[in-house]
Amino acid sequence: MNKASSKILTGFKYIYLIAFFALLAGFFHPLITNTSFDSVIIGVLILLVGLAGGILLYKAATSEKKREIFLGAGFTLMAISLYYIIAIAGRI
């Protein structure tokens, strides 16, 4: 596989993830209710932070070096994402 097709495939993966997160965050709700897209953008960012935490936890499981750093950063990002989800839900 050459470099160009590899970069295109990588770019497509990230576009797919962002589109999936936008749908998961309620992309159609502002269209139906004629409101702002602010909550959708915030929801996508929160999901991306959680995904980054999950990736760091995966790297901690597969890495020999810097395992503690990956674990700490991964759990921290997951906790931040969970905190913001609970804050948006109005539980805090």
Structure description:
With 92 residues, the protein is mainly alpha-helical. The chain is built from 4 helices and no strands. The longest helix has 25 residues, at 38-62. The model has no long low-confidence stretch (mean pLDDT 86).
Topology at a glance:
Blueprint: H1 3-24, H2 28-33, H3 38-62, H4 67-88
Helix pairs in contact: 1-3, 3-4
Brief digest:
The chain has helices at residues 3-24, 28-33, 38-62, 67-88. It is mainly α and 92 residues long.
Key terms for this structure?
single chain, mainly alpha, 82% helix
Which runs of at least 5 residues are low in confidence (pLDDT < 50)? none
CA-CA gap between termini: 49 Å
Question: What's the story with the biggest beta sheet?
Answer: none
Radius of gyration: 16 Å
What form results from the Cα inertia axes? flat
